[in-house]
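USER: Fancy drafting a protein?

ASSISTANT:
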Amino acid sequence: MTNFHQKATQTLADQQFISPEQATEINNYRNRDFFSLHNELKILLYLSVIMFTTGMGILIYQNIDTIGHTVILCLLLVVIAVSFYFCFKNFEGFKKTETTFSNPVFDYLVLAANLLSCIFIGYLQLQYNTFGTHFGLATLVPTLVSFFCAYYFDNKSSLSIAISGLTAYIGLSINPTAILNNKFYDNPDLSYSAIGLGILLILWTVYSEKSKLKEHFAFIFLTFALHLISIASIANLFENYWFVFELILGLSTIYFYFKSIDYKALSLYFFTHIYAYIGLNVVLFKIIDFLSSKIILEFYLMLAPIYFVGSILLFTKQIKNFNKKNN
């Protein structure tokens, strides 16, 4: 069968239906005895952790009156303790450099233990008011647990949970609904907090790089910092002091542009351009509004299609050049 396939491929090459390079690639592909399922298995493990923790939450919600609060808390605590026991047992210990488990399954066990810990602490506060009126502690304590899991076990998923918890602690929600629901407009202090937190994340990244402390976490910190600073700045571009936030957005764009090139990170590069494009358009609209009495409307309507089509083509070209340079 192998000889038949090789002859068929060679026939296609001789008849110039495929190039010699393509024929070589096809033969090399067919000569492989096996292929890796590593990524597929990791996705399945991640989904299993999410489904398990979700199932625990549903179980608690549906049977809260029949099982009892104490039984639920004890069950959660036992599962958490067992999970952390196997994690500590099979991990080498904290190191400043990147460290991995001998078996990647334990990375997902850390994630499960972390999520269940957050559920446990939240349930304590909800049912027994453990932290009293200090509701922020109910968010801060799981955040600290997540940071511990992230840095001790070198777990990036836990780090994302920790940073999300930190933003929740200061009252932020990093998602598009935060803009659509006018949360930043109703409470401008949130935008200041978002920019401040974004700057702190950048400073922590700089410190981590200099001290060699989990340098590979830098991309996650920078991703959160980019969204925090950019969304908060854009939300304030319609205030009286918009030029200050336009300046912040401009400096942010320059910084993250070079960082995306340094890390060869397409996501950073993509969103940096998107946020910069939004900020630029806001300034252009302000200029158009200022000059509206001096220039006729038809002139804007004539230039608009050229501008938008040209910007789309330029953006597409930039993305292609970025991929070409890094691949």
Residues 297-326 form the longest helix (30 residues). Residues 174-180 have pLDDT under 50 and may be disordered. The radius of gyration is 26 Å.
